[in-house]
């Protein structure tokens, strides 16, 4: 496993594929007989869709086998149910809590106090990361949280410090402080998912700065949906310098049938235009990679799956992570 890290928090700007990366990371961490728990906190059931399984309940359920015989379990944390657990654990109010739920009071509380909701969500994930059996063995080798987007992640993880400050003593204070001890420890890492475009990379840069300022441990940057480089600047220059040779190569490839020479010549201009666009994109990606490199974080890349991410594709991405990341 990567160092001493046991809780892996995965965030990223919307559209960068953070849920896919979290799922692939959970599979990679479970390889060779290990057990991981994949936690969803946003209620979107994105994990169930990726693994092509039924919607996740509020209960840990095995959803996949990893290469080498490991297992991936998953949990969709429900704030109301987590509050019931909390009331039972600290106040022995199991039956009273269920009565409050019937009255709609729990939904009211978690709506008017969003900070409390985040405390419950993070607390459940931290509890899973710390849980041990009677022999002192951890229930899971790693816990992976599919967390809220980058723009909200520092507030989401740091809310326990605020709650601990508001409640000077008692179970709420102690619970929030214990959660913050986990979240700020070397056993936790916040990984940021991005794609090589201006806005996602800038949000990643800003997110890393906010996390570091808040004293939260930053892990790795994962560059997702990377397109292959098909032509570099030198190859484009050669093609532009001798368009007749390009036309001849296209004709030799069998384009155009009986009049393939003329048709091949007509293809040269649009092909060179597309080649220009491609090399311009590569230049932009080099700029974005340089911005990420300045963060001085481990950086891993995952390819764009042109047919979309199905279960087979998820295992492929997991294998790519496993080859690059010292898990």
From TrEMBL:
Q: What is this protein called?
A: ArsA-related P-loop ATPase
Q: Which residues form the ArsA/GET3 Anion-transporting ATPase-like domain?
A: 8-181
Q: Which domain of life is it from?
A: Bacteria
The record, for SUPFAM superfamilies, names:
P-loop containing nucleoside triphosphate hydrolases
Q: Pfam families under this entry?
A: ArsA_ATPase (PF02374)
Q: Which organism is it from?
A: Streptomyces synnematoformans
Identify the Gene3D superfamilies for this entry. P-loop containing nucleotide triphosphate hydrolases (3.40.50.300)
């Amino acid at each position: 496993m990567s160092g001493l890290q046991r809780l892996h928090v995965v965030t990223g700007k919307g559209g960068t594929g953070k849920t896919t990366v979290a799922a692939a990371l959970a599979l990679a961490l479970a390889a060779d007989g290990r057990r991981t728990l994949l936690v969803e906190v946003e209620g979107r059931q994105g994990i169930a869709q990726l693994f092509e399984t039924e919607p996740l309940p509020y209960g840990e359920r095995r959803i996949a086998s990893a290469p080498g015989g490991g297992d991936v379990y998953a949990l969709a944390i429900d704030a109301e149910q987590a509050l019931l657990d909390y009331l039972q654990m600290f106040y022995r109010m199991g039956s009273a809590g269920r009565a409050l739920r019937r009255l709609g009071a729990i939904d009211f509380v978690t709506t008017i106090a969003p900070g409390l909701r985040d405390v419950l969500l993070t607390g459940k994930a931290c509890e899973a990361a710390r849980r041990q059996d009677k022999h002192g063995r951890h229930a899971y080798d790693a816990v992976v949280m599919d967390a809220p987007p980058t723009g909200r992640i520092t507030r989401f993880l740091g809310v326990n410090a605020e709650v601990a400050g508001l409640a000077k003593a008692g179970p709420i204070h102690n619970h929030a402080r214990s959660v913050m001890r986990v979240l700020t420890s070397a056993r936790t890492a916040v990984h940021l998912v991005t794609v090589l475009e201006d806005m996602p990379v800038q949000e990643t840069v800003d997110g890393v700065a906010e996390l570091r300022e808040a004293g939260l441990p930053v892990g790795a940057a994962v560059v997702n949906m990377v397109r292959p480089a098909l032509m570099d600047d030198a190859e484009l220059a050669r093609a532009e310098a001798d368009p007749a040779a390009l036309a001849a190569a296209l004709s030799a490839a069998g384009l155009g049938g009986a009049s393939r020479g003329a048709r091949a010549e007509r293809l040269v201009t649009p092909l060179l235009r597309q080649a220009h666009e491609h090399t311009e994109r590569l230049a932009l990606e080099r700029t974005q990679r340089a911005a990420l490199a300045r963060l001085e974080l481990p950086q891993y890349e995952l390819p764009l799956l042109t047919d979309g991410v199905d279960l087979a594709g998820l295992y492929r991405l997991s294998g790519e992570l496993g080859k690059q990341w010292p898990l």
